[in-house]
Automatic annotation (TrEMBL):
This is Putative transcriptional regulator. PANTHER family: HTH MERR-TYPE DOMAIN-CONTAINING PROTEIN, REDOX-CYCLING DRUG-SENSING TRANSCRIPTIONAL ACTIVATOR SOXR. PROSITE patterns: HTH_MERR_1 (PS00552), HTH_MERR_2 (PS50937). It comes from Mycolicibacterium chubuense (strain NBB4) (Mycobacterium chubuense). Keywords: DNA-binding. The lineage of its organism: Bacteria, Bacillati, Actinomycetota, Actinomycetes, Mycobacteriales. Residues 5-74 form the HTH merR-type domain. SUPFAM superfamilies: Putative DNA-binding domain.
Length: 128
C-alpha cells in the first residue's frame, strides 16, 4: 500500500492545486488524507487525488463548498456496493441535478469564451 500513498507536494503537482488549498480542503473535511506518515505528514491515495481533482473541476463552475461535499458524497454512494436502494436513488438524483448545472455552466463559459476570442481578434488588428 505504501507505493500508492503520495505526499502533499506530489498531490499538489498532480492536481494543480496549491499545498495551502489542499490543506484547506482537509481542514474543511472535503478531502481528508487517508493516512499519515510516522512523522505526521499527510499521505493521499489515488482516490483522494481523484476527489481533489473533482473539487478542482467544480470550483470554476460555481459550486459552493457544501455543494461540493454533497456531490462528492453522492458519487461515493453511487460507487459503493454497500449503499441501499433509497440512498442510491437520492444520490443519483443529486448527481443528475449537478450534471445539468455543469452543462449549463459549460454553455455559459463557451459563450464567454466566444466573446473573449472575438475581442482578441478585434484587438489583434491594432497590435500587429
Amino acid at each position: 500500500m505504501a507505493a500508492e500513498l503520495l505526499q502533499i507536494g506530489e498531490v499538489a503537482a498532480r492536481t494543480q492545486l496549491s499545498i495551502k488549498t489542499i490543506r484547506h480542503y482537509d481542514e474543511l473535511g472535503l478531502v481528508v488524507p487517508s493516512a499519515r506518515s510516522a512523522g505526521g505528514f499527510r499521505l493521499y491515495t489515488p482516490a483522494d487525488v481523484a476527489r481533489l481533482i473533482a473539487i478542482r473541476r467544480m470550483k470554476p463552475l460555481g459550486f459552493t463548498l457544501e455543494e461540493m461535499r454533497e456531490l462528492l458524497d453522492a458519487l461515493e454512494t453511487l460507487d459503493s456496493g454497500d449503499a441501499g436502494e433509497a440512498d442510491r436513488a437520492q444520490a443519483a438524483a443529486y448527481v443528475s441535478v449537478c450534471h445539468r448545472r455543469a452543462q449549463d455552466a459549460c454553455a455559459a463559459l463557451t459563450k464567454q469564451l466566444g466573446y473573449a476570442r472575438e475581442l482578441t481578434e478585434q484587438l489583434a488588428r491594432f497590435t500587429d
